[in-house]
Specification:
The chain contains 24 helices and 26 strands. It is globular and about 105 Å long. The protein starts with 5 loop residues before the first strand and ends with a strand. Bound molecules: ligand ME8.
Length: 656
């Protein structure tokens, strides 16, 4: 054990603010495949995942749900169909699971914070800036994009409070050097993004404590402050090994990590803030941060609030855990974004698993059963027809390893499926059914053909085992491979399967899916989930009083087009609209909606207005009519949406 190469790999620790979706599952499955691959190659692997449970977002959600923050996160982490259940279902082989609310982690974070403070790298100041609540990120004005969070595009809020700061600026040059001159961050394309967007414009010191909420690790030497959630979260990778705590004691053994797998939007935290803090702590840096892409849905990010998340439970239960794991890593290049669709999932299952792998297995196993009663004879007769297949299968482990060492899961799987495809073609070329017609003359040749097929299946199953652990084990069982010819070494030695291996027929591993039916079922489930995700609206009570029809008909509703729109001076409520109402004379309407819209967002839009109200003056300006909006309250907050019409509708069109 002591001589084994160590490999420490981590996933991000997930926010238990909502149930996890397929995007989160993607990263954990990738990490699991890498951990299993490294174990297969003989490494002593530590695979860590966990949950990042502090922060204002969780505190707010718990309040909305009427429970304590701890109860809230407990439910999402360990409740029914929670995060732990999901990883169990997905056959995730993590060795450790950290929760940032665990006592040992909390006290270790306090010590880490104090150490950086005592060193002078954390100092007290006043924080004034912008805060994105969903991302738990502070931004300066200059970092905002169109006034919004540069990561998620959502509105930010003003924040001002006494706070501690980490001297991130002090480490800017060293971090830039790390990014530009080492392989610390991959894929390489992410390096330019980090250096050009964040380091070159000037790294500012980072606000690392908050006083406006309490759900976090308390700064023990200054009550009222809680540690910024990202400081708390990033150090999980080391507290889970025993840094500043007695819970574990293998920090020296496993740190520095070999690789942190992280999604692209949190590369900034892992490749700038994390190394800078480790430098401050005088700790070794992780060997690599790999920033993977997102799974998109209809070209956009999945999000609970959009109601477009894909539920991994539904897919795993419907198509099988291994099929889902396989699909995720076979279909999308790990470093780039990929579009998730039910059609793509079903297509991959039908083509790769049912047609290619499943068929190869069931044909081979049934032919060995039919022609040899499940056990091959020892006699052989080789042929030039075997050469290409045997050469391909013999070199497969090397080609696969080359790709896996670069985290290129998709390419590694493509190599395996080239051999599987070639083996299926080999069946057709050799037509075993024809050979079987004269067993006296062709028995030895038929045994050779069958043996080559079993060998291709054996080597493929070993190499597929990090991706599809249960199915691979079943393939090895069906082809009669014993432990010594199911391991990593034997995957490089063609001919390792015993000549007289006993083959047993088993279940069809990957049944073909009726795509049309399955897609319709999934769409119905998604529709239901979308409805369930819609926020409960607090609507204005409906009026009981009736208006007679003639009175109603007197109201003149028209389509109007916004020619210009601006804020009214000295008013933080009013917007002034110059509108084309189809009469050829501009109409001016003032509307108290500045809180909800920026003027420039509305220019060119087609809106609905009532145009025969008597003119009235607001802030000294005349308003001729009223724009129609929908209003409601959501979680106590007023919401307003202008009624927008199709731009094809001409200005002046009457609404009736
Ligand atoms: O970021 N496709 O937690 P998180 C691919 N707590 N990956 C996705 C994805 C998608 N559609 N959606 C989310 C956090 N992810 C922090 C991490 S680590 C010290 C702290 C990935 O639950 C996302 O990119 O919001 C991230 O890597 C991970 O899920 C966890 O996201």
């Amino acid at each position: 054990m002591e001589n084994k190469k160590r490999f420490y790999i981590t996933t991000p620790i997930y926010y238990p603010s909502d149930k996890l979706h397929i995007g989160h599952t993607y990263c954990t499955v990738a990490t699991d495949a890498m951990a299993r691959y490294k174990r297969l190659t003989g490494c002593d692997v530590l695979f860590l995942t966990g949950t990042d449970e502090h922060g204002q977002k969780i505190e707010d959600k718990a309040r909305d749900a009427g429970v304590s923050p701890q109860q809230f996160v407990d439910n999402i982490v360990q409740g029914e169909r929670g995060i732990l259940d999901l990883w169990k279902l997905m056959n995730i082989s993590n060795d450790r699971f950290i929760r940032t609310t665990d006592d040992y982690h909390v006290s270790a974070i306090q010590k880490i914070f104090k150490k950086m403070y005592e060193k002078g790298d954390i100092y007290k100041g006043a924080y004034k800036g912008k805060y994105c609540k969903p991302c738990e990120s502070f931004w300066t004005e200059s970092q905002l994009v169109d006034g919004k969070c540069p990561d998620c595009g959502r509105p930010v809020e003003d924040a001002e409070e006494e706070a501690y700061f980490f001297k991130l600026s002090k480490y800017a040059d060293k971090v830039q050097d790390l990014l530009e001159n080492t392989d610390f961050l991959e894929p390489k394309s992410r390096v330019n993004e980090m250096v050009n967007n964040f380091i070159k414009p000037g790294l500012e010191d980072l606000c690392v404590s908050r006083t406006s909420f309490t759900w976090g690790v308390p700064v023990d030497f200054d009550p009222g402050h809680v540690v910024y959630v990202w400081v708390d979260a990033l150090f999980n990778y080391t507290t889970a090994l025993g840094l500043f705590n007695d819970r574990y004691d293998d920090y020296d053994k496993y740190w520095p990590a070999d690789v942190h797998f992280v999604g692209k939007e949190i590369v900034r935290f892992h490749s700038i803030i994390w190394p800078a803090m480790l430098m401050s702590m005088e700790m070794p840096l992780p060997k690599k941060v790999f920033g993977h892409g997102w799974l998109l849905l209809d070209g956009g990010k999945m999000s609970k609030s959009k109601g477009n998340v894909v539920d991994p439970y539904v897919l795993a239960e419907k198509f099988g855990v291994d099929a889902l794991r396989f699909f995720l890593l076979r279909t999308f290049p790990f470093g780039s974004d990929g579009n998730f669709s039910n059609e793509a999932l079903i297509g991959t299952i039908n083509v790769d698993l049912a047609n290619d792998l499943g068929n190869l297995l069931s044909r081979t196993v049934s032919m060995v059963g039919k022609y040899f009663d499940g056990q091959l004879p020892a006699a052989r007769k080789e042929d030039a027809l075997d050469d290409e297949l045997v050469t391909m299968a013999s070199g497969l482990r090397g080609r696969y390893e080359e790709q896996m060492e670069h985290y290129a899961f998709q390419n590694a799987l493509a190599e395996v499926f080239k051999v599987i495809g070639r083996a299926n073609k080999y069946i057709d070329e050799n037509a075993p059914w024809a050979l079987a017609k004269d067993m006296d003359a062709n028995g030895d040749r038929l045994a050779t053909v069958m043996y080559n097929l079993l060998e291709c299946l054996r080597i493929s199953a070993i190499l597929l085992s990090p991706f599809m652990p249960a199915s691979s084990a079943e393939i090895l069982r069906q082809i009669g491979a014993c432990g010594c010819c199911s391991n990593w070494d034997s995957a490089a030695v063609y001919g390792s399967l015993r000549a007289d291996a006993v083959v047993v027929r088993g279940d069809n591993l990957f049944p073909r899916i009726d795509a049309e039916k399955a897609v319709a079922e999934l769409e119905a489930i998604a529709e239901q989930a979308k409805k369930a995700a819609l926020p409960a609206l607090e609507l204005e009570p409906q009026l009981e009083e009736k208006v007679d029809f003639d009175t109603f008909c007197k109201s003149d509703f028209r389509a109007v087009k916004v020619k210009a729109c601006e804020n009214v001076k000295k008013s933080d409520k009013l917007l002034k609209f110059t509108l084309d109402d189809g009469t050829g004379v501009d109409r001016q309407i003032l509307s108290g909606i500045a809180k909800f819209y920026k003027p420039e967002e509305l220019v060119g839009k087609t809106l609905m207005a009532i145009v025969n109200l008597p003119a009235r003056k607001m802030m000294g300006q005349e308003s001729c009519g009223m724009l129609i909006s929908a209003v409601h309250t959501e979680k106590g907050e007023e919401k307003l949406n202008l009624l927008m019409l199709d731009d094809k509708i001409p200005a002046g069109a009457k609404m009736c």
